[in-house]
Amino acid sequence: MFATKRRTGRKGHGILSFRFDSSRHAISINSYMKEQRDLELAEGVERGTASGAAMDQQAVVQHLVCKPSKRNITVIFGPVRDFIKEIEATMCLQGKRCSLHHFIHDFVKHHFLDSLTFDCNKKLENATKSEVARTTASDQKTSKIVGSKQQVLNSVVVVWQLVEDLRVLMKNLSLYSPHFLQIMISLLERYRDSCNHMYRELTWVSEGGGGKTGGGGGGGGRTGGGADYVVSSKWAKDPDINLKIRLLPSWQRLYGNSPHPTEDESKLVMEESQLLVSNLGRESLRKSNVLLDHNSFKLLGILQESLDWFSGHLKHLVMELGRSGAGVLATDGAKMSTMSSQYYEESVTEQTEGVPLDLTEQLSKVQFDFQALSETTVVMLHLEVRTHCFYYLQPALHKVHYVFDPGNVGEDQQVKQLASDLRSIEMVMSAVLTPEKLRYLFDGLGHLVASIFIGSTFFMRKISTHGIKKMCRNISVLQSCLSKITLIREKDLDRARRYYEMLYLNDEEILHQMYEQGAQFSLQDYSNAFKLLAHSQPVFEADNLQARLQALNTFFSKDSV
After folding, report:
1. Structure pTM?
2. Is the dihedral of CA 96, 101, 103, 104 positive or negative?
3. Measured CA angle at 536 (ends 542, 548), to 5 deg
4. 299: left (phi over 0), alpha (psi -120 to 50) or beta
5. What are phi and psi of 211, to 5 degrees?
């Protein structure tokens, strides 16, 4: 009934099915045509024949010789400075400065230096603002680039890059060397404080036995029952103990000085053991007194290697600044660090202007602070390993009655724990410390352990033959452990074993042995042995003990004459 209007077909071409303007061929053609237009525009600008329409702002911006940056002044400063001298000589300004000089000076002092200071502070903040940033170590590739044998902290790499950058700027913009040096000193002082903070956090231990590596403020606001700095950290900063430690031949070997003669070496090691035993031998240590977290051990090792590497490079920089009394920096960046060739390309080789002496002295002081913290850290690790020996051995050895059944003559549980702990420390620290420093941690440890074993008879009232056998087993376990770590037989522990085997004899037999073979132990050691043997008898005879002690004193008095 109703009819629809018939649809008429489209005139001309049919419906468009495909477009090819986005195909790879069309894109290539368009790119080629754009490059040709840009090339023609560049040639026109160079000849001065380019049309006004072509020289719009967008086209000109695309053909700048370099990206806009305040750092461009470091490249053009030398040529512009020479150009300013020519202008002022031509204009005969008679001591006055041309406007270009004022412009450049104002730009450097109020724009470039401000921007540089902000950038440096920002990079330092990013490298140290969090626990993760502070404690992250570099990978093997980065360590190789910076010329370090061991892993170093990423933060120390960042700071050294900033120092190298400022050193190069001191040459390229030599008129402003004091300003760059002041920025450098400020950065180093802040980083020094950050490293001190990290050291304090790693050596602060709660009663649970774990080191605190979290961020936050300094140590002054930390409270809590049983939390304190570890004993080794306190001792490492004690001047008397520090001096005694630095006289040891192991310290002399570590820092490249001539070691003491052999006859003095054993005497110095004995003095260290006596010092530690006299301070810790009668003191009961808590978990908060020792660093049981091996991850904190590792971080302290990385911190020590980082500071050692960093202070060495800073010392070289101080020497370069003070050379010839004129503060002249070396023009060869490779003399400063292998990092120079990796991160910087020095285009200006003019010498720096004189650097004020007070700034050089400030830099030298900061360098000394880094070196001092580095040495304090390695001394602390040296003492911490020894503190662990007291922590584990005292509960096992300071027993009033060391009497056991025949079936219980194996090593004490605490001795097993100490052996396991020492092996773990050696494994962890061998990955982060140089072999020389690893040796320093364990050098002389056998003598200390032997002294602890021998001195423990002071606390005993009774010991049985099975107790003597158990003690000899303890000594053998630790001797085997230390020999595998140090790769030498710890003969001092042989001496400790002979001391306890001597207790199988009675006091008269011991005196007879002394007259035949001479004294092998000290007067105090023999006195402790005689008292222990007397109290271990079924009936204690005080008169007999007094007579034996008198005979002992007579022997040593004759021997000393």
Report:
1. 0.78
2. negative
3. 40
4. alpha
5. -75, 150
Question: Residue 336 is encoded by which pair of tokens?
Answer: 């400063």
Cβ 446 vs Cβ 482: under 8 Å: yes
Residue 209 confidence (pLDDT) above 60: no
CA gap 238, 235 in Å, rounded? 5
Q: Strands, DSSP E only, in 313-430?
A: 401-402
The single-letter DSSP state of residue 328 is: P
Q: Are 366 and 185 in contact (CB under 8 A)?
A: yes
Helices 507-517 and 523-536, axial angle in degrees (round to 10): 160
Burial 343-379 (b: 16+ CB within 10 A, else e): eeeeebeeebeebeeebbebbbebbebbbebbbbbbb
The encoded tokens of residue 518 equal: 């001479």
- Residue 273 to residue 514: CA distance in whole angstroms: 24
Q: How many CB atoms lie within 10 A of CB 443?
A: 19
Q: Return the structure tokens found at 323.
A: 């050379």
Q: Which of 2-6, 153-157, 389-393, 469-473 has the lowest mean pLDDT?
A: 2-6
Q: Taking Cα atoms as reference points, which of 318, 355, 313, 360 lies closest to residue 336?
A: 313
Phi-psi category of residue 256: left, alpha or beta, with phi > 0 → left and psi -120 to 50 → alpha = left
How do residues 338-351 score in pLDDT, each as one tens digit? Answer: 333 333 333 333 33
Burial of 400 (0-12, 13-18, 19+ CB in 10 A): exposed
Measure the CA–CA gap between 524 and 445, rounded to whole angstroms: 21
Of 121, 163, 119, the closest CA to residue 337 belongs to: 163
Please count the CA atoms within 13 angstroms of the CA of 533 that sit on its side-chain side: 23
Bridge partners of 462, per DSSP, are 401
The helix/strand/coil state of 369 is helix
Parse the chain into domains and list their residue ranges. Answer: 60-121, 505-561
Closest CA to 498 of 476, 478, 528, 515: 476
State the Cα–Cα distance between residues 465 and 405, nearest whole angstrom: 9
Q: Tokens standing for 139?
A: 């990978």
Alpha carbon distance, N-terminus to C-terminus of the chain: 148
Three-state DSSP at 204 gives strand
Residue type, 27: I
